[in-house]
Amino acid sequence: METLNASMTHPVDRPVRVAQFGEGNFLRAFVDYMVDLANEKGVFNGSVVLIKPIAFGSLDNFKKQDCQYTLQLRGRVNAQPYKETRQITCVKDIVSPYDDYDRYISIARIPTLRFVVSNTTEAGIVFHAEDRFEEKLNITFPAKLTQFLYARYEEFHGDPEKGLVMLPVELIDDNGIELHKDVLKYIDLWKLPEGFRSWVEDACIFTSTLVDRIVTGWVRDEKERNAIYEEIGYVDNLLDTAEPFALWVIESKKDISKEWPMDRALAGKEGMNVIFTDNQKPYKQRKVRILNGAHTSFVLASYLKGNDFVNQSMKDPIIRDFMMHTIHDEVIPTLTLPKQDLEDFANAVVDRFNNPFIQHSLLAISLNSVSKWRARCLPSLLGYVDKYHRLPEHMTFSIAALMAFYSSDEKGEGCLKGHRGSDVYDIKDDAAVLDFFASECRKDTRTFVHDYLSREDFHGQDLTKIDCLEDRVCEYLDAIRRDGMQKTLETYFG
Predict the structure, then answer these.
(1) Strand partners, 85
(2) Residue 227, C-beta contacts closer than 8 angstroms, at least 6 positions apart
(3) Which of 20, 270, 381, 426 sits at 20 to 30 Å (Cα–Cα) from 454?
(4) How many of the other CB atoms lie within 10 Å of CB of 192?
(5) Around Cβ 438, how many Cβ atoms within 10 Å?
(6) Which of these, 132, 173, 160, 168, lies nearest to 20 by C-alpha position?
């Protein structure tokens, strides 16, 4: 079969409007997919230039395929199977600053350029005082961006109409705010002109964003990959795969929705949404409490019951029912967004958990469960108690399940070794957490529970002060220790 290239896709020649720091699977399955749709719908007319943010990795496949690639979305929408296959043609070029710095910096001077997208990992948005303006390689992304912006400022003599909109998708809180701070630090460090600083402040826009889509990326299984090639009729060495669900919340002080109309690009596509707001926090809270909170509240109980994957857990009636009650009865009532928005998001979460193309390991989710429970579940428990003056039973049980999962004094390499029947599993967390469970788990249930709930360094507060919580966790943990997870779940939630 022929390998995909521009002679097959016939891409439309459009002006470069997006500089994208990152050529990885996520951005290609998320941002570039939206740009491609927006071009097709006639609400955006622009192409993307990919910029390689790190030194290692080859660009050969991009060059051989003229930056053309196929994206396949696979999963469930509205409880029904969903598959969408699309040739992405909006990427016009790719450049490595490490191979051709001058060509890279020339992108900053393109008159039609307006947007900068980045995904340089959580460690990418940092400030290093050792970075130098004259240094062209091996400096942080904010330093690179400062150089990039300065080249544009000089090219257009500080024209306020030539400012850029930054759309970082790195998974850190307030990513745009942090990126903006770091750029200003580099301006000060490098003693760049005051006029440039004013241009960055007044002509440029730094948005903070929240993104959500599981991107499964390259299909590693050769048989499965060849089946896709047979289906699409060509070889694609840049093939990308992802779930159908997509959420992009863009927080900005200035309204950019008319310039960046990705909400209109996704119009009519169930489970895909772009939201423009001046406050993304309620949406982050919704994601953390419903999606991540659901994971953290059921996965350890599900694993001890005998399941290994999320989608397998959703086929287990007791676990599925446990999760649904957790979300709808204990989490959603504590959140501030309109109830219908929350219900719709929850329904999408269930579809995502049921996706047969994503084998999400429960043990992978179990990593650092103590801090995850504090961030994802504790706020819902506290909000429920404050609102209803009683304990949320499923969230309370999740504490006992966590303690049961972590109960081991058998040490491994940077972990504890837990036992599920004849299966041995790794318990991975911070050293202080592992030391606590190794030394405390063999104590009587009352002492063990009291000592765990009272650890303010684990929970941010003393949870024994919550009425009846200690007694209820003791009851659940005693039952798990005595009867096992399967029977305990049947007794209390079956």
Answers:
(1) 72
(2) none
(3) 426
(4) 18
(5) 17
(6) 168
* Model confidence pLDDT, tens digit, residues 361-372: 999 999 999 999
Confidence at residue 293, expressed as pLDDT on a 0 to 100 scale: 96
At residue 313, φ and ψ (nearest 5 deg) are: -60, -35
Spatial separation of the C-alpha atoms in residues 392 and 397, rounded to whole Å:
9
- Strands 69-77 and 91-95: what pairing? unpaired
Report yes or no: 64 and 344 within 8 Å, Cβ to Cβ. no
**Residues in the chain, overall count:** 494
Q: Taking the alpha carbons of 433, 434, 435, 439 in that order, is the dihedral positive or negative?
A: positive
Round to whole Å and give the CA distance between 358 and 29. Answer: 15
CA distances in angstroms from 298 to 31, 175, 359, 474, listed in the order given: 31, 30, 16, 18
pLDDT tens per residue across span 279-303: 999 999 999 999 999 999 999 999 9
In 127-193, at which residue ranges do the beta strands (DSSP E only) sit? 165-168
Q: How much is the pLDDT for 54?
A: 87
The C-alpha R_g of the chain, in whole angstroms, comes to 25
Look up residue 121 and give its two tokens: 């990992």
Residues 46-74 pLDDT 10s: 999 999 998 888 999 999 999 999 999 99
Whether the full predicted model's pTM is greater than 0.70, yes or no, is yes
Report how far residue 490's alpha carbon sits from residue 426's, in angstroms, rounded to the nearest whole number.
26
- Buried b vs exposed e over 271-290: b needs ≥16 C-beta within 10 Å? bbbbebeeebebbbbbbbbb
Tokens of 211: 């993104």
CA distances from 181 to 105, 175, 210 (A): 22, 10, 18
* Residues 6 or more apart in contact with residue 89 via CB below 8 angstroms: 9, 10, 11, 12, 36, 68
Asked whether the predicted pLDDT for residue 121 surpasses 80, the reply is: no
245 Rama class: left (phi>0) / alpha (psi -120 to 50) / beta: beta
